[in-house]
Amino acid sequence: MSDNPPHRPPRIFSDEEIAECKRLAASVTKTQLADYFGCSFNTLQAAMVRQPLLSEAYRKGKAMAIIQMAGSLQMKGLDGDVGAAKFWLSHQAGWSETKRTELSGPQGDPIEMDHHWTIKVVE
Question: Distances from the Cα of 19 to the Cαs of 13, 72, 119, in angstroms?
Answer without folding.
Answer: 10, 24, 73
